[in-house]
User: What shape does this take?
Amino acid sequence: MDLNTIFTRLETRPQLRQNITMEQVLGFIALTTRLVRDINHCQPLPVSASGEPPPTLPPSIVEFLEAALKLSPEDAEECWETFREVVWDAPAPEVSVRQVETMFEVHGHPSGLSESSQTFYPPNIVCTQPACTNRKPLKKSHSEEVVAFTRALGPRPAWAVHLYCNECKTSYHNNYHIQAGQRQYYLGVPEFIQVGEHQYVERLVAEDWIGLMVSAWVSASNLANTYNFQASMPRQMHAASTQFRTALTTEQVWDTIVVLALLEDADYRNAPLRTPHTGDQKNRFVDAMTLRNERMILEGQPELTHYCDNCMRVYDNPDGTQNKTQAILSDGIAMGRPCCGEFKCQIPLANNCHRFCPTHFHLHFKCAVIGCNADVAEGSKSCPDPVHQEMERQLHLPGRSMALLSARLRHVITARTDSSVAVEEVLAAVEGEVDGEVEFQEHAGQVQMQPQPAPGSIGTLEPSSNAFGPSPCPATKSDSGNRKHKALWNRRRTHNEQILVRPCGTMCARATMYGAEAVSNVLHMVKQTFSIPRTVKPDLFIYDSNCNALREVSANNNTWFDNVGMPVDVFHHKSKHKISDTFCQEHCNPANYAEMKTPDGKWYFNSSAAEQCLRWFGGYAAIVREMLPVKYDFFLDEMILRRNRIIRAQLERRGKYPNYAII
Assistant: This one.
């Protein structure tokens, strides 16, 4: 359809020319182009079969255009009469996008433009520094070729243009500006996130990746492999010649997820993200992640003050007054990261290949057998003691690492068939490393390595420091004359992750336990979490080892728990706790807590919610097993935060009225 025809039609409609803007015309064509099939489907059979644009629009389409473009029904109909041939002959929107890209590929470079329609400019054209007096448009610029990882078209060549202010020496980029070696990101999340010096990832792609991590535990390496596979399909191939690799790397996926999370956090707080511009990319966001981790400890998860009909019960008393009961649950799972080999040391490793932190680094040169302080023999992790040398030799016999880890794996599978700890142990076996302590038995000079089960996660009483007298020998000796040795040949790992969960499935807090799931540590976690300003102390603390926890509270006269009920969860009390344990039956039997039961005798709260959450949480064991503390904490907290959003949306759909406590 030529322009003369359009002008002729517009001349006969002076009222339409006065009523609509060019923006509305372009919007009308864009929207109706996407609705061609809908428009045609509603027409009488002869009109649909003709292949010509129908004379009128269906009422539903008119109503939509009226709302979307602020057009009157009469103007919408007149627009259709004027532009219907343009709409009917236009290519499908997705075809149009590819046609535009093809035009840039073929004609862009010879014309001095990019081979892609995508060019990344700063959001501003003048300097925005408050102290700078230069308010003229910035003309000093630098352009460089980059790669844009898109959802629809795969990796595309693009250009990034940087503007520079000569007066205040500020360099403006698409995502941030640079001054004095520091980046300050703009508020909000951009359409494309810069994840490397020459790499940009579309926000939609980043959200897809992080969604897959939350819902399906997909690793960064698998996300990169999947994207590269899809980008290699014929429909996404292009003839662009870029000087940079168009293959996505695992590190770029991780940087995308970290930057997206940091930008969303900064936007939520209305405070710009700041990072160093110099230095290695792998260290660029460590300080920002550390600050977010510290805020998470001081302020808690956004859902920390959550309550809903599933986790808080409001009920009537016989005297006509009302009471409320809000519950919190706790449980742990044996997953973790490398940590210092010195027991309970919380100083981070400088490198995840090290066995000891910088403070205890000298222990690398001491015998790996626990309790032996002799220097190591050359080329060995043990001292010259023949028994210790034999222990190390046995560890490295072909198949011994696999045999030891297979024994741990059988224990895990027996205890928890859906646990991802099994995945972690298999990975360790493939790598040929045995992290954690390994036990040996010595008898008459003969040494035998013992199969050591994977550590479980159950609350225990922590023995006092003087519970055991000093041992004259680093090995323990049984009545039968056998000596038991323990050695730490490789890295120690943190013991378990402990979580606090509402009965509705909302996760309130997470903590890393270094030595064991000691009930004293669990109690400390509960107290610290609900001592954060704006929180409300729970009325019920449901925990599978509450009989031990309550003994700890009583022994230490911990008054913080005076008004907190401490029952064991229903499942563990029925199956794991002895009827003969009078203390447990009197104080921790959930049947003793009337507020946990409905009038018809059913349990009001889902006391197994913590274990159910751990089925999801344990899926990250294999992903985080090699992370250092900053990234480990940041990643797990981010996964919890995003899962909580999903849980909250589900509760809203089910009419459970999720809300936040106001103090």
Summary: DSSP finds 22 helices and 22 strands in the chain. Confidence is low (pLDDT under 50) at residues 234-240, 411-431, 464-475. The longest helix spans residues 629-653.
